[in-house]
């Protein structure tokens, strides 16, 4: 049985996220980040090394930056380990990284796509009108009951089901205080507003998805080399046209990450590597399934650097 490789979504970005790779693998980092920068017309290497944070966090910059960094780590991981891969999955934006890794979508075309995707998502809702919050320590059923109570007052929708105790909502900012208050009264341990520029994975994004579909139609999608699990239906998908349709629907549908993890676990994929910046996905998997072997590419690179420094002493 091979390894499952996971790729993070938006929110994983941070200034300095390519520094360790720049320090240890300068040529490869320059090549991949440079190629992505040329397609986007933005110096992504500078943004990921130096910031400013406000510029990196813009959706149309964050998405290609995360994709490029994720594929950089994937390339270096393959070079160093040469381990068998059984399946790939990505959280939201991370689906594009997963499909690139599975040789279903070309890297350059994926960078172009996520840049366009980011622009359309950024433009979908006027600044300040929408928000996203992570609800911790409350069951999905209770969160959905709260959502139902506010249905007639405006948009409040489940956007991500990250685990059995972490649900993300997209909502109109005008409803934010009332919704947070209600969630806390229902027993939520914590409600955290996310640092995102728009309420993703909700009906707020339907028009953006319709526009994005025309760009996806121009891109060749091949059957994935590895098994690939979609966020939309939490099932293995291999037909190119189905992948294309699901990538459009993904923009306005909930990310069913808990079910994605369940699917991978049921198929005896109990060895996980997380690529890209951040450690969110590996932590989620470890909490849901403590018996799974979970590794993170950033920990490997830090350990490698520490070993080199130790040898120099």
Molecular structure report:
There is one protein chain. With 313 residues, the chain is an alpha/beta fold. It folds into 2 domains: 233 residues, 3-Layer(aba) Sandwich (Malonyl-Coenzyme A Acyl Carrier Protein, domain 2); 64 residues, Alpha-Beta Plaits (2-Layer Sandwich). Helices cover 51% and strands 15% of the residues. It is built from 14 helices and 9 strands. Strands 7-2-1-8-9 form a 5-stranded parallel sheet, with helices on both faces. Strands 4-5-3-6 form a 4-stranded antiparallel sheet. Helix 2 packs antiparallel against helix 5 and helix 5 packs antiparallel against helix 7. The longest helix has 23 residues. The protein is globular, with a radius of gyration of 19 Å. The C terminus is likely disordered.
CATH architectural grouping of the largest domain: 3-Layer(aba) Sandwich
Helix content: 40-55%
* Most strands sheet: 5 strands, parallel
Our count of domains comes out at: 2
* Approximate strand percentage: 15-25%
Strand order, main sheet: write it out.
Answer: 7-2-1-8-9
Poorly predicted runs of 5 or more residues: 306-313
Query: How many extended strands?
Result: 9
* Cα-based radius of gyration, to the nearest Å: 19 Å
Q: Can you give the mean pLDDT?
A: 94
Q: Which secondary-structure class do the elements indicate?
A: alpha/beta
Named CATH topology of the largest domain: Malonyl-Coenzyme A Acyl Carrier Protein, domain 2
CATH class of the largest domain: Alpha Beta
Shape assignment:
globular
> How far is the first residue's CA from the last residue's CA?
40 Å
> What is the fourth-level CATH superfamily of the largest domain?
Malonyl-Coenzyme A Acyl Carrier Protein, domain 2
Q: Return the string of H and E elements.
A: EHHHHHEHHEHEEHEHEHHEHEH
**What is the count of helical runs?**
14
């Amino acid at each position: 049985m091979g390894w499952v490789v996971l790729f993070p979504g938006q929110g994983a970005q941070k200034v300095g996220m390519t520094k360790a790779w720049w320090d240890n693998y300068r040529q490869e980092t320059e090549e991949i980040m440079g190629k992505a920068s040329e397609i986007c017309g933005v110096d992504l290497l500078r943004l990921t090394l130096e910031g400013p944070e406000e510029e990196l966090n813009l959706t149309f910059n964050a998405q290609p930056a995360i994709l490029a960094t994720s594929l950089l780590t994937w390339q270096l991981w393959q070079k160093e380990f040469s381990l068998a891969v059984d399946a790939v999955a990505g959280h939201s934006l991370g689906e594009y990284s997963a499909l690139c890794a599975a040789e279903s979508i070309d890297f350059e075309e994926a960078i172009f796509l996520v840049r366009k995707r980011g622009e359309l998502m950024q433009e979908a809702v006027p600044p300040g009108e929408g928000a996203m919050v992570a609800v911790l320590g409350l069951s999905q059923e209770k969160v959905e009951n709260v959502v139902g109570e506010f249905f007639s007052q405006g948009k409040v929708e489940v956007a991500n089901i990250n685990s059995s105790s972490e649900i993300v909502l997209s909502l109109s900012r005008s409803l934010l205080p009332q919704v947070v208050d209600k969630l806390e009264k229902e027993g939520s341990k914590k409600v955290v507003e996310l640092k995102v520029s728009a309420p993703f994975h909700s009906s707020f994004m339907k028009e953006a998805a319709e526009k994005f579909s025309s760009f996806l139609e121009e891109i060749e999608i091949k059957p994935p080399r590895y098994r690939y699990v979609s966020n939309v239906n939490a099932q293995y998908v291999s037909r190119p046209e189905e992948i294309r349709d699901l990538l459009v629907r993904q923009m306005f549908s909930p990310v069913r990450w808990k079910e994605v993890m369940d699917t991978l676990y049921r198929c005896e994929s109990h060895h996980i590597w997380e690529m890209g910046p951040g450690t969110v996905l590996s932590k989620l998997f470890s909490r849901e399934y403590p018996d799974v072997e979970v590794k993170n590419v950033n920990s490997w690179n830090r350990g490698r650097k520490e070993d080199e420094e130790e040898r120099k002493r």
